[in-house]
Amino acid sequence: MKKIEFKKFGGPEVLELKDVEIGKPSSKEVLIKNLSIGINYIDVYHRTGLYPIPLPSGIGLEACGVIEEIGSEVDLFKVGERVSHASMPIGGYSEKQLMPQDKLVKVPEGISDEIASCIMLKGITAEYLLHRSYAAKKGDKILFHAAAGGVGQILCQWANAIGCIVIGTVGSKEKEEIAKKNGCHHVINYTENNFVTEVEKLVGKDGIDVVYDGVGQKTFEGSIECLKVRGMMVAFGNASGYVHTLDIKKHINAKGLFFTRPSIAHYTVTREEFVESASKVFEAVLSGKIKINISKKYSLNNVKEAHKELEARILTGPAVIIPN
Ligand SMILES: NC(=O)c1ccc[n+]([C@@H]2O[C@H](COP(=O)([O-])OP(=O)(O)OC[C@H]3O[C@@H](n4cnc5c(N)ncnc54)[C@H](OP(=O)(O)O)[C@@H]3O)[C@@H](O)[C@H]2O)c1
User: Fold this and answer.
1) How far is CA 91 from CA 74, 122, 176, 192, in A?
2) So what's the pLDDT on residue 82?
3) Whether the predicted model's global pTM rises above the 0.85 cut
4) Cα-to-centroid distance, 82 and ligand 1 (Å)
5) CATH T-level fold of 2-118+294-321
6) How far apart are CA 115 and CA 112, in angstroms?
7) Residue 254 CA to ligand 1 centre (angstroms)
């Protein structure tokens, strides 16, 4: 079967399409034939080594597929069922993969393969960020960076549905429209404007209840500036670079802020947490609260191009790889 692998950390050119043998599922594993594969910014961190992983490695953490074979002790799933996932082991960019049964959920009728493959990692992230890392409520003024991105489109629609006042930042004119269509009440192009000044015009100085910052280095200081006294800083990603240093006096003590640097793994510790979160995401999509527009489809032959476009900020929301 075909699979993307890489032997050294680097740019998109390190990604290689290989023909590999896939083994049989062990007792609690299933063999999945992937139907659609999600592309995520974390795939870039794995490829570059920002998040180091043992090499050589596959890549990709999100996919939807159909079960072809089950291990002897698998009791949660049957051959032929459609499942999706959002976690280790890495290797989603492949025609087939072996996954432990407890990392899978059944995909409900009414959710397409493509949508199922891009609402697990991104959707569960949006769910825990918005409901659990900080429990956003009606009237909260939230600031979300890269609002036209994969996680951004889901979270901003959900926040809008809750009744939050949603301010999103974006990096281009085209993305301004996309963010508006995906739940943002106000959109700031932060490549053309100082977002701190623009946020202040909208909600006053120190007016934001919670910032969801997946951009990192470039936005971190400004995000802190926008927050109200006792506001919440949710730093959940590093698209522009990792924030290595937190100055307690300057960043936290000055306004008595709350700070968290969560990862999806912290909010899907048990199977129950994972299944419950995935169910909420499926329900939000099935009920129409969240609409998913796949921005672009790739094949396994052109994942290098996918990574180039993701890093060049060309992609506008969830993108998938169709393996066959
Ligand atoms: N902690 C967690 O549990 C968790 C889980 C999933 C994702 N994440 C994080 O959430 C963020 C969004 O993930 P995603 O997969 O949905 O990606 P994405 O938002 O579709 O893509 C990243 C976006 O970041 C913005 N960006 C700003 N500066 C950038 C730079 N220097 N280089 C590249 N992009 C830059 C771009 O939007 P603009 O052009 O609009 O600025 C770009 O489209 C990422 O930081 C990711 O690591 C965290």
Assistant:
1) 21, 17, 33, 38
2) 98
3) yes
4) 28
5) Quinone Oxidoreductase; Chain A, domain 1 (3.90.180)
6) 5
7) 28
Rounded to an integer, the average pLDDT of 290-312 is 98
Q: What is the β-pairing status of strands 29-38 and 96-100?
A: antiparallel
Residue range(s) occupied by CATH 3.40.50.720 in the chain: 122-265
CA-nearest residue, atom 16 of ligand 1: 150
Which tens digits make up the pLDDT trace of 10-49? Answer: 999 999 999 999 999 999 999 999 999 999 999 999 999 9
Mutate to test the pocket of ligand 1, among 39, 42, 61 (most ligand atoms within 8 A of CB): 42
Measured in Å, residue 149 CA sits from the centre of ligand 1 at 6
Q: Which CATH superfamily is domain 122-265 in?
A: NAD(P)-binding Rossmann-like Domain (3.40.50.720)
Give the model's pLDDT for residue 38. 98
Q: How far is CA 318 from the centre of its chain?
A: 9
Measure the CA–CA gap between 233 and 143, rounded to whole angstroms. Answer: 10
Which residues of the chain are in CATH 3.90.180.10 domains? 2-118+294-321
Q: Which of 37, 119, 151 to mutate to test the pocket of ligand 1 (most atoms within 8 A of CB)?
A: 151
Q: How confident is the model at residue 324 (pLDDT cuts 50, 70, 90)?
A: confident
What atom of ligand 1 comes closest to residue 262's alpha carbon? Answer: 1
Distance from residue 269's CA to the centre of ligand 1 (Å): 23
